[in-house]
Design goal:
By secondary structure, the chain is α/β, with parallel strands linked by helices. It contains 16 helices and twelve strands. The protein has helices at about 20-40, 55-70, 70-95, 100-115, 125-130, 130-145, 150-165, 175-185, 210-220, 230-235, 265-270, 320, 355-365, 370-380, 400-415, 425-439, and strands at about 10-15, 170-175, 195, 225-230, 245-250, 270-280, 310-315, 330-335, 345, 350-355, 385-390, 420. The protein has a six-stranded parallel beta sheet, sandwiched between helices. Helix 1 runs antiparallel to helix 3, helix 3 runs antiparallel to helix 4 (about 100-115) and helix 3 (about 70-95) crosses helix 5.
Length: about 450
């Protein structure tokens, strides 16, 4: 087995075939149509379907303001926005997951209507599954007889590393349980494969029991099979044995390589290939600069120069921690006034930092306002990270340890926020820098 003293990470672009690009384009016209409806309501100016997720989240925040004011147009707009999200998610599955994942998602949307009283079903869901263009896109997906290009590329990579390079073991990591199942089935014809699925499963895949999980990891370590295909939460929760290669199926999963979770140590020391598709369907803020909405927020992202990594740091943080951020190399720290975040490292990722003492105080005095702020942040950034800094998390006699665990569980499960631990201010700064370089 190869030994890797430092992580070598390569981003590899997988080109979508024309058939899938055409389907993506047709679905984009649906988004444009819905954005035009929002423009007619006076909510947006920009009808470009390739807006960043951050911009789409800002639109939702502005619509929610209308809803809270009992503006009837707000209720119509939120339904239109929900349908936009469903179409965008379908496009994301086409680009980044698998053919089966797209079809399974559409079937789940149909089942959502069939399983409830039609009068109580979501209007957005009903319109989504009955939209002529969407239905045609799904039919075209069903008629597409080739594997997803990422599947084909992974098969080639496995052949190269296990065959030509005489490697022993490869780990493939994906956020999607549907993709793990489909990929395992696809690769089993040519390689010795096993799969592990964690706690985030919401579909037909069953979670791998703890006893079976330990057995599979032990068998992989002993070389009983050569390819382990697993979900990101397994990597976060379990110690995955060393491998010759780690293949990260989608760029969003690279956060597991940046955490200080000791379970992911072996993966961080493994040569890694991150798969992405090109061109992306949703433009970054810098690409979308010529066609942006007039809506803004104090937490919004100002694009960095090409090749530059910019970390925005809240000016309310004390000077001791901000001093750890120096403008060296490709990393630039910008002190700014951020409404809810402590750090912003990209147009899609924001970070909140609390010391263990601050977190304990929040729980003792009442956490309602804290979680309300978390909810507001969720409407602005698709990914949030919560950093807990310090070592004395469970040592405050004024609060039960279980209450602390419940609050962390709420962040993780209810808000889908990754919770990371750091030792002190210097460790937090190093963590934020590491996350920024991979965002």
């Amino acid at each position: 087995m190869s030994n890797h003293e430092h992580t070598s990470t390569t981003r590899e672009v997988v080109e979508l075939p024309k058939e899938l690009r055409d389907i993506r384009h047709e679905l984009s016209t649906v988004i444009t149509s819905h954005l035009k409806k929002l423009k007619e309501l006076g909510i947006v100016e920009n009808t470009n379907p390739n807006q960043s997720q951050h911009q789409i989240n800002i639109i939702k925040r502005d619509i929610l303001d209308l809803v809270h004011e009992n503006d009837p147009e707000g209720y119509r707009a939120i339904s239109i926005h929900s349908e936009i999200i469903k179409v965008r998610h379908t496009i994301d599955l086409i680009e980044n997951q698998s053919i089966d994942a797209v079809l399974d998602y559409f079937e789940r949307q149909k089942a959502e209507i069939e399983d409830v009283d039609p009068a109580n079903a979501s209007n957005a869901t009903q319109r989504f599954v009955t939209h002529t263009t969407v239905k045609q896109a799904i039919k075209n997906i069903q008629d597409y007889n080739n594997p997803h290009p990422k599947f084909s590329r992974i098969r080639v990579l496995l052949a190269q590393f296990l065959g030509v390079n005489n490697g022993d073991k490869v780990v493939v990591v994906s956020e999607s349980t549907d993709t793990v199942e489909s990929l395992t089935s696809f690769m089993s014809a040519n390689f010795e494969v096993s799969q592990l699925v964690g706690q985030k499963n919401t579909n037909k895949l069953k979670n791998t029991p703890d006893t079976e999980r330990s057995e599979i990891l032990e068998r992989f370590d002993q070389g009983d099979f050569e390819v382990l295909i697993t979900t990101t939460d397994i990597v976060e929760q379990s110690t995955v044995p060393k491998a010759d290669l780690a293949i990260v199926y989608e760029p969003a999963s690279t956060v597991i390589l940046s955490t200080n979770n000791p379970n992911s140590t072996h993966l961080k020391e493994t040569e890694t290939i991150v798969l992405t598709t090109n061109p992306p369907s949703h433009l970054s803020p810098s690409e979308d600069a010529d066609n942006t909405n007039s809506q803004s927020t104090s937490d919004s992202e100002t694009p960095a120069s090409k090749g530059e990594i910019k970390i925005r740091v809240d000016n309310n943080l004390n000077q001791t921690i901000t001093a750890h951020f120096s403008n060296t190399g490709s990393v630039t720290a910008q002190i700014d006034e951020l409404r809810y975040s402590d750090f912003i490292i990209s147009d899609r990722i924001s970070i909140i930092r609390k010391t263990t003492e601050e977190f304990q105080k929040i729980l003792i005095e009442g956490s309602e306002s804290f979680f309300r702020e978390i909810g507001k942040l969720d409407s602005m950034y698709p990914e949030q990270i919560f950093i807990l800094e310090g070592k004395s998390l469970y040592k405050n006699p004024k609060i039960e340890s279980q209450a602390v665990r419940s609050a962390i569980g709420a962040l993780t499960i209810d808000f889908n926020i990754k919770v990371l631990r750091t030792e002190d201010e210097s460790d937090t700064a190093r963590m934020v820098n590491a996350l920024a370089t991979r965002s």
